[in-house]
Design a protein that fits this description.
243 residues; Rossmann fold; binds S-adenosylmethionine; 7 helices; two-stranded antiparallel sheet; alpha/beta; 30% helix
């Protein structure tokens, strides 16, 4: 078992969470996200871009099922795709500018978009959702929030047999990379995939049957892993993990 990740230092933390980045660059983020760029490397040739992963996840879900896009970002691209395909989903993001921009670009989603910081308990009942998306979000958060609040809360609001898809930058420590999409250096918290898996399994999830986690490298040359998991039937409210 790897040692627990240390909290970021005071000078690293604000940049790593990227609040200022998303406040300032939401519009550009939405544009790049809509481009649906091809990965520069993938462990499975069926999955060349985010849209392929979404399709793969969708086939696990009940027609018209209820979903939560946790960290839906400016533009709410994935929420839009799911709603167009007949799912009944909502999106949350902590940055009001992201939600405002999403409502402007996609007014048909306005009633489905909410400002909420996932580091705080969700004001939603247990077992409310058939599926949850949490894409590229934990990399902006501290381990004590990810393991102590964010993941337990997402699992709490997932119904038994419901499906979670989480994508995150994997590795150890903190990584700064030059992002040519913005001509800026950005900083991310990397997560050990064994530690994330261990946490989700402890909370009551199991990897989808026959699913082999997909890995890919994006245009920024950062490495990601994708888990598709289901909540075991008979699990109560998940216990928060101490970190
Ligand atoms: C890289 S974008 C992810 C976009 C989208 N989920 C996707 O898969 O394309 C990360 C988003 O997560 C949001 N985010 C990060 N930490 C969050 C938190 N603690 N609570 C709510 N939103 C958060 C950021 O504001 C940002 O909009």
């Amino acid at each position: 078992m790897p040692p627990p990740l240390q909290p970021l230092t005071a000078t690293q933390a604000p940049e790593a969470f990227s609040e200022s980045f998303y406040r300032a660059h939401g519009k550009r983020y939405a544009e790049i996200n809509e481009e649906n760029r091809q990965y520069v490397w993938t462990s499975d040739a069926r999955f060349q871009r985010d849209a392929d992963l979404l399709e793969d996840f969708m086939r696990l879900l009940p027609q018209g099922g209820k979903g939560l896009d946790a960290g839906c970002c400016a533009g709410a691209r994935d929420l839009d795709i799911f709603c167009q395909r007949g799912f009944d989903a909502i999106g949350l993001d902590s940055i009001p500018e992201n939600i405002r921009l999403s409502c402007e670009r996609k007014p048909h989603l306005a009633s489905r978009l909410f400002v909420h910081d996932l580091r705080e308990a969700l004001l939603l009942p247990d077992a409310a959702f058939d599926f949850i998306l949490c894409g590229y979000v934990i990399q902006h958060n501290e381990p004590q929030d990810v393991f102590g609040v964010i993941l337990p809360e997402l699992v709490r609001v997932l119904r038994p047999n419901g499906a979670l898809r989480i994508i995150f930058k994997h590795g150890k420590g903190i990584r700064s990379v030059f992002d040519p999409g913005y001509q800026l250096t950005r900083t991310f918290r990397l997560y050990d995939e064994g530690e994330v898996l261990d946490c989700l399994e402890t909370l009551g999830l199991t990897m989808e049957r026959d699913y082999v986690p997909v890995r890919f490298t994006d245009y920024k040359l950062t490495d990601h892993v994708v888990f598709q998991m289901r909540k075991r039937v008979g699990m109560g409210n998940p216990r928060k993990k101490q970190v």
